[in-house]
Amino acid sequence: MCILVNDEKPNKDLIIFKFKLISMKLYQNEKGLVKLIKSIPFKLEKEIQSIVENNLGEFFDLKLVKSEFSIKSFRIDTLCFDTTNKSFVIIEYKNSKNYSVIDQGYTYLSILLNNKSDFILEYNEHTNNNLRRDDVDWS
What we know:
Elements: E1 2-5, E2 25-30, E3 33-36, H1 45-54, H2 56-60, E4 63-71, E5 74-82, E6 87-91, H3 101-114, H4 116-127
Parallel strand pairs: 1-2
Antiparallel strand pairs: 2-3, 4-5, 5-6
């Protein structure tokens, strides 16, 4: 699988997310000829988090609610809201292989569904909007 970045001017600041589970090459179009874009891995999860949070709208069309959201004994890396689907989105960053990521996802889903008011309150306080429980698709 490959993605062709159609840009007439080479973009030296192009950010490439490298996922270990999918081997993917990225190419840039330079006047009809493609050139392989060199991948530079991130050293720290925080680097990935900062770039994603600063570009949530561009990457995913999401609105940032809170970075490092703590609830109960857990810390969610990035809490977002999808205004199109009216739902919360939790992003967890991993810079290494971690086989418990599925379990962590189910845990976060359980926390979300069992603490709806905390998520609504966090949204209202950090976005200066008034979201109600019925405004959210919890399914």
